[in-house]
Amino acid sequence: MNKCIFFLMNLIAVMPTDVLATANVVYGYDKSNHQIFAKDGNEITTFNFKEDYAGNPVYAFDFFHGLPAIIADSRSLHDWTTYATLGFRDKKFYIDCLYYKLKSKQNGVFTKEANCGLNESNVANYHDIIDEKINDIESEIDSVDTSLLLSGEVEYISIETYKDKKQTIYKVYTDKKSFLDNTYLIASISAGGLCEVYENNPWIVYVSDVMSRVLFFKDDNGMESLIPAVPSLNSSWICSSYLLSNAKES
Known about the structure:
The protein is built from 5 helices and 16 strands. The protein has helices spanning 3-14, 126-142, 147-151, 176-180, 235-241, and strands at 19-22, 25-30, 35-40, 43-48, 58-64, 67-75, 78-89, 92-104, 110-120, 157-163, 167-173, 185-190, 195-198, 203-207, 213-219, 226-228. The N and C termini lie far apart (65 Å). By secondary structure, it is α+β, with helices and mostly antiparallel strands. The strands form 3 sheets. It has an 8-stranded mixed β-sheet, with helices on one face. Mean pLDDT is 88; it is low at 1-17. A hairpin with a 2-residue loop joins strand 6 (67-75) and strand 7 (78-89). 18% of the residues lie in helices and 45% in strands.
């Protein structure tokens, strides 16, 4: 038997939490050799990745939303966690999505978003890919003025997070307590005026493809996976109760 296949069979047997089968590909992490691998049929493709639990950020391998992922976790000027999910095509790895949760220590804004359809083939450069995205997100979030809500001068704030010809998306903190508890809702308004509200801290997922879609997901009962979010039955009432504007500084 091929030594590489024999090694993989034994790896799957002794480390089930580090291996996942998706369609015809088996993904996993070889801790001894510091390699993420994909087994497609009898062929195994790897790339070097060393988990680091001592630095800041911490880097680890795990699975997120049903896919292998490079996870980075940082506690510094801002607290954030990213999940760079991996795809595998033509015997090569690529970063398909970058999910990120970030809490600003400058103004207290909390966000859960993702960019998908990245098709980033330079997987070995994951440090820089993550850092560049996080720097952009930090600058964007830090531009939000939350002082009026914290001082009690306004009862709620809404933050425009996305806008194109088809829709505008707002994050709404309904009061000071919801803000301090990191609890927000998302309002999506179509060009035709239809307003749909997603409650309980949904993820906003921006998909770069032919349709350029924006999707909404929610956490699956604390598991490291997501399920589609459903608009609230109270969407009309909520949209009429809160003036949707932009709290970002000019």
